[in-house]
Amino acid sequence: MTIDWPIFGTIFGVNLVYITLNTLRFLLTMKGYRHLAPVVSVVEITVYVIGLSLVLNQLDNYWNVLAYALGYGVGVWVGILIEDKLALGYMMVTVIMPESSTQLATTLRENGFGVTQSVATGLEGQRLVMEILTPRKSERRLYALIKSEEPKAFMISYEPKFVSGGFWAKRIRNR
Question: What is the pTM of this model?
Answer without folding.
Answer: 0.67
